[in-house]
Structure formats: structure tokens, C-alpha cells
Write a structure and sequence with these properties.
This protein is α/β, with parallel strands linked by helices. The chain has one domain (3-148): Mannitol-specific EII, Chain A. The chain is 41% helix and 22% strand. It has helices at residues 3-6, 21-34, 41-54, 112-125, 128-136, 140-148, and strands at 12-16, 58-60, 63-64, 67-70, 77-87, 97-106. Strands 1, 2, 3, 4, 5 and 6 form a six-stranded mixed β-sheet that branches. Helix 2 (21-34) packs across helix 3 (41-54). The mean pLDDT is 91. This is PTS system fructose family transporter subunit IIA. It comes from Oceanobacillus sojae.
């Protein structure tokens, strides 16, 4: 899959107002629906919430990677939202979350594609320069460039 099919400007939103994890995930679900990547914002939201019940997706350093694999996802997507104010996410480092990198994965892609996507993101989130590039981004273009830059030179995921 080409990285430009996974993320574009319509899947990025800056300075989103949310007071809770639930509210932030509803904003993610609405954005992914608006971009045409899911059939139902409610189903995608519930899928992300079910995942959160298993264990936190709060990766650390102010970043969370909420995700859901489900039939309602019609196109794999990476959605990035920066929050106006950081919120408690019960993250692994106990720090509040300010940036969400949400994944929407169709059931038929849940195997190696999903794991490769998570692995690539996780590996890069261990790199200070990648984290700082995301957290300091002020435009959708800066976020888009940072996220797409972690995938292969061929543009494939």
C-alpha cells in the first residue's frame, strides 16, 4: 500500500479540543469517517474503546496510538490529531497525551500489514527527533512529511 493512500491532509487535525480520552477518540472517528475510510464513526470509536480496555495505547512522550481492526474500515488509514490541551490517557509513562496517531485497519489487513504499521510507528517513536518533529509541528504539512518519512523510499508500507 502506498503511504499517500494511508494519510493525507484530510486525516490530520490540529489543536482539537477534547476533555477526555473518549471525546478525543470520537473526534478521531468523525475525522476518519469524513475522510471516507470507515463506514461508521460509532463502530470505529467502539473498536478503539475496546482496544483501550485491553491496555492503554498511551505510548509515552505525550503520544498515543489508538487503533481498531474491523470490517467497518473500508480503507486503511493513519489519522493524526494534536490536542489543544493534553489529557490523561493512563499512558505507560503516566504523562498526559497531546498527540494521537490513530490507525484504522480493515479486517482483511489485520495480519502482517497491521503489525508492520504498528512496528514502524513504535520503532520511530523511540527516536527523539521523530517525537520532537511531531510534537513541534505547527502545520498539517509538517505532520504529513514526518509521518510519511518513516516509510520506505518506494512509498510502500
Amino acid at each position: 500500500m502506498n503511504k499517500s493512500e494511508l494519510i493525507n491532509d484530510s486525516l490530520i487535525e490540529l489543536n482539537v479540543e477534547a476533555q477526555s480520552k473518549e471525546e478525543a477518540l470520537k473526534k478521531v472517528a468523525d475525522l476518519v469517517l469524513k475522510a471516507g475510510c470507515v463506514k461508521s464513526a460509532a463502530a470505529y470509536y467502539h473498536g478503539m474503546m475496546e482496544r483501550e480496555k485491553n491496555s492503554t495505547t498511551g505510548f509515552g512522550s505525550g503520544i498515543a496510538i489508538p487503533h481498531a481492526k474491523m470490517e467497518e474500515v473500508v480503507q486503511p488509514a493513519i489519522c493524526v490529531i494534536t490536542l489543544k490541551d493534553a489529557i490523561d490517557w493512563k499512558a505507560m509513562d503516566d504523562k498526559p497525551v497531546q498527540l494521537l496517531i490513530a490507525l484504522a485497519v480493515p479486517t482483511e489487513h489485520e495480519g502482517s500489514f497491521h503489525l508492520k504499521l504498528l512496528a514502524t510507528l513504535s520503532e520511530n517513536l523511540m527516536e527523539d527527533h521523530f517525537v520532537q518533529s511531531l510534537l513541534s509541528a505547527r502545520t498539517k504539512h509538517e505532520i504529513l512529511t514526518t509521518i510519511t518519512g518513516i516509510f520506505t523510499d518506494k512509498g510502500e508500507v
